Structures are given as C-alpha cells and as structure tokens.
Input
Amino acid sequence: MDILSDVTGAIGNTPMVNLSRITKAFDVEGNIFAKLEYLNPGFSKKDRIALQMIVEAEEAGLLKPGQAIVELTSGNTGTGLAIVCACRGYRFIACMSKGNSIERARMMKALGAEVVLVDQMPGSIKGQVSGEDLALVEERAKQIVEEQNAFRADQFNLVACNHAHEFFTAEEMWAQTDGKIDVFVDFVGSGSTFSGCAKTLKKYNPNIRCYVNEPATAAIYAGKEITDKGHKVQGGGYCMDLPLIDKTLIDGYVQVSNDEARDTARKLAEQEGIFAGFSSGANVYAALKLLSTIEKGKNIVVTLNDSGLKYLSTDLFQDM
Output
C-alpha cells in the first residue's frame, strides 16, 4: 500500500454503491448508483474543487507563497480549502452565513481556518440560506480580499471547479459503472458538479440524459415560480444565475421538497447505512422520482455530497 505525502492525496477515488435497498423500498424499476463523496477527507465532494482551485492557481502563477486565500462557503468548500491550505502552508479565511449549521464553522476552525460569520438578511430563518443571504457573504468576502491582498478561491466562477469533476469525478463514475449509465441527476449549488460530470459523461455517450435538481420552492432553472427562497437544503438552490453551468448540457429538471430531501436522507441512513446530508437525500429522491416516471428501468448516477455529521444541530436527524 502506498503511503501518502499528505491527506490531499486521499481526495477523490470515492466508492460507488448500488442503492438496491432504497429502490426496493420505493418499488421502482432500475438502479441508483451513488458516489460516496462524503468519504473525502473533509467529508464532502467540495474537497475536490478546493484542491483543483489551488493546484490550477499555483500552476498559473495566480497564487503566491504565503498569500492568504479567501472564500465564501456554506461550509463544505471552506472545509476542503482549510485542509488543502493546512497541507500547503496558506492562511485561509472562510466567510460563511450564520444560517448554515454550526458544525461546519467549528470544523473549519479546527482545521486552522479563520471563520468570518455573516448575519443573514432580516427575516431570514436559520438553517435556510437564500441567495440574498449569500450576497451579504459575497460582499464581506470581497472586502477581505481587498484588505488582505488575498487570492479569491471563487467556487462560483473559477473553471477549475468544473475541471475537478470533468477530469476526475465523472471519469471515476464511468470506470466504476463500466459505462452503464443512462442518467445523471444533480442538486445544483455552484453548478460545477453538474457541468463537469455532464460534459465528460456526454463525451463518452451523448445519449446520457443529465437533469438539474432544485428545491421545489426555488426552481429557477426549471422556470418555475419562486415561492420560497429560504429552503432547508443547504449548499444550493440559491435562485441565482450560475456562471459555471453550461445550459446546453441540461436535458431536464427535477424538483424536490424539504420533506422529501429530509425523509430520503433518513432512509439512506436506516436502509443503506449511509449517513449523509440534505442534498444527498435530495439527489436520491430525484433519482427515485425519475425511475418512477420517465426513466423507468434505467441506471441513474448521483453523488452523495456530504456527511450527516454536519447536520446534527439541524432537524435532519432530530425526532427520529
């Protein structure tokens, strides 16, 4: 067995699991192949983009030794960046909304990050971060970048984020399934997982259908009426245009409610032994929805994005 020089070598190459118990419980035809991204060192898929942003910035000469790194985060990208920065000797400052679960801030601090918590908009609900809340965090992040002459690891704009999934995640998906993929569905946060994976999967097979998954109350890409921007699926559904999404890769849309995401995340734990977060539940429910309707009998690939441990202060696993 090889010995890694540091923990960033453990990022990626996550396992794939056939969620056969879930599909049986919901009585649907077909398979859901779930990539266990919560098994990355920072317990989320965002470790991938954190590493890729830093690697590409170093290679391009945009990031100098000793320079501070700043990023807006719901917690997962910040955790990944804290890990990468600890290994590469950078100071990292994370800006996060107070609406996100506190476990994320504590984890980043433990990993050596400086965490700046930003108040939500008046009337916003803790645990439900809207695009307006995110705009306040973005404003603070820009201010710190200017003050510190820092490098901005911008997960909403840097193409390196797409590359992380285009060059690695999707290639792993293809190899792990022997190319037996009919559908890919993804709950969109920054949009990099969707676009990166969809691009590579369609390169191998243009007939693979790629669906954007959004909150039922905030489905901006599906063109639905926005009835509630403050939903419980943290890390996405911000009701904003996402520069990293290539709309030409979108074949369809799926919407998932708060309860559907929560209940499916709970079923993942109970029936598959997989302890994952809200967006993982949203992805699996979206796949179940497709298998029960327009994609019966197909093989659907999803990512399980982060660990349920990051939501113990929320209602995701309370009152079970």
